[in-house]
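okkk here we go again. third time trying to get the pyridoxal-5'-phosphate bound version out, last two times i messed up the smiles copy paste (missing a bracket lol). double checked this time i swear
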Amino acid sequence: MSSVSGLRCRECGRTYPAEALHVCDFCFGPLEVSYDYDQIRATVTRERIESGPRTIWRYADLLPVDDPNPVDLGAGFTPLVRADRLAAELGLGELWIKDDTANPTGSFKDRVVSVALTKARQLGLKVAACASTGNLANSVAAHAARAGLESVVLIPSDLERAKVTMTAVYGGRVVAVDGTYDDVNRLCAELTSEHPDWAFVNVNVRTYYAEGSKTLAFETAEQLGWRAPDHVIVPIGSGSQLTKIAKGFAELAKVGLLDEVPEVRVSGAQAAGCAPVATAFAEGTDAIRPVKPSTIAKSLAIGNPADGWYALQTIRESGGSCAAVTDDEILDGIELLARTEGIFAETAGGVTIATLAKLAASGQVRSDECVVAMVTGHGLKTTEALFDRVGPTATIAPTLDAFDAAVDLGADGVRADVAAQRSDR
Ligand SMILES: *Cc1c(COP(=O)(O)O)cnc(C)c1O
Ligand SMILES: [Zn+2]
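finally!!
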């Protein structure tokens, strides 16, 4: 039995039934799913979760849709990797990477789409649609294929090649729009009124979609041995993921899965070429000024973020911070994570790691904290960002002499950075 008690306006508090609604009729505020936490507390246990599937659906008790056969490609339960080598480079202590590159279509969007389309099917909506900065398109097209649904995804026409290919291959309709994501999103809002029986996952079923991001918090706590971290670093596009991660940790305490109410500092990461939230944070204002994005972190290139204000409040209330990093720093972040931990992230992951480095250097992320960095998308999606940076060490003739001339690992073959870290101990 579902524990959803309805939808509630985040602004005026009016309540609505759990249907395909996303804005309040009264004040146009966004709606949020509310739950009967007493009912959840009475059934949910750590054991019940641990015996569930190794996907987001092990947390079905805390998700807004009850369906024994969800639209599922296996999203979630991605590795939480202890990152000691990266921590040493950044002067940090207990550092973990939540490796969401391991999702079925290579990004955290699989979490939200699996929830959104499961709910959409239950609501009788017929077509899976979205406005996307790339990863959502990949995920909607794939999950629609899985569910046997027609899909229509709208993307800005300047997306990375891999993201277009990874969307089109599933056989749905892919419409490239000459404009920014914000233009695409506006068109999608208009289409939502034209096609009320389509599920625009980030428009008319956004309320349900957003809840999928809570699973990042649930998994992190479970994988830490039912313990919340002290600090999480989260990339910001629309800001939805960041707010829901905070909600997720709070819910775990509410339903008795954590022993105490966690105090998790939530920090936001943006690209300097699209940093409306980081700018408002730095200026100490509440007003988020929309920007025209210009950054290689296309998956985060939302100039007018729908949940930007809520993300800002979440960051401030939690005692977190927010910073923005340049395109060069993003590429440095991608290479640093790959070199130290063997994880290849897309540009959004570079934003997270570069922001982590910046906040560690300024003392806002501390070495006495348990820190988790959300690495939300796979590097294979944005390889062109690195074309000028990485390539063969050498191109040689097929001879031993040529090899020896090109490759010199030194006498003991131990990497210089690793040797330095060893001698520090
Ligand atoms: C969409 C996206 C984000 C941002 O999520 P929001 O909920 O829009 O803030 C972060 N990382 C990746 C890889 C994404 O695709
Ligand atoms: Zn309202």
